[in-house]
Amino acid sequence: MDATATEGWGAAIYAWIFPMVIGDAVFPPIPSEMLVITGGALAAEGRVNLLLLGLMTAVASCLGDLLVFQLFKRRLSHVLDRWDWGRKVHQGIHRTIAKAGRSSTYGAIIGARFVPGGRLAASAAAGIAEVSTRGFSLCAALGGVLWAAWQAGLGYFAGSTTGLPFWASSLIGVGVGLLIGVVLGVIVTRRRGNRSPVDEPLDEAGD
Questions:
Q1: Which of 65, 77, 137, 162 has the most CB atoms around its CB within 10 Å?
Q2: Rg over CA atoms, the chain
Q3: How far apart are CA 177 and CA 155, in angstroms?
Q4: What is the pTM of this model?
Q5: 136-152 burial, b if ≥16 CB within 10 A, otherwise e?
Q6: How far is CA 12 from the centre of its chain?
Q7: What is the pLDDT of residues 37-53, one digit of tens each?
Q8: Spans of all domains in the chain
C-alpha cells in the first residue's frame, strides 16, 4: 500500500487509537501523538471524522491514565518485575517520575500530558500519593479531552491551512507539537525533580 495515499488510512487510524494511546500511558516512546495528529490531518481531507477521532482519543487517554494510576495506587507495580521487559518498563517509569517530580496536584494531572513523559509521571505519582480515584478520574477525563482536542486540532489546522498532502501536514503538526512540548518540559523541569518514590531499589532487585 502506498503510504502517502489516503485510502484505507481512516480505518487504520480508528483501529490503532486505543492500543497506541493506552500504551503510551505506560511506554511514552509509543508515537500516539503522531497518530492522532495524522488523524487530524486526514480529517481536514474529509477522510476521518474529527469528532469521532477526538472522542476515541479522549477515552483511550483516560483509560490509559487510569491503568497506570490503579497500578501504583494498588501497589501492583511489582507485577512488572516478573519479566525482564517489565523490570525495564518499571525502572523507566521511576526515572520519568524522578525527572518530572512528584507533583500529584489536580493541575499537574491535567497539564502534565502536554510535556514529554509527563502523563506517565503524573498518573504514577498520583497513585503513589493516594489521590482519590474520583478526583483523578475527573482530571484524567478533562485532560484527555484537552489533549485529544490539541493533538487532533494540530493536524486538522495544518492540513486545512497548508493544503499539503496529509503526511506532510502531519509532520508539520508533529514538529509544532514537539517544539511546544519541549519548551514546556524545559520550563517544568527547571526545578530539580524529586527522588522517585520507589518501593524497592529496582536496580538491585533486577540483579
A1: 65
A2: 18
A3: 10
A4: 0.75
A5: bbebbbebbbbbbbbbb
A6: 19
A7: 999 989 988 889 999 99
A8: 10-205
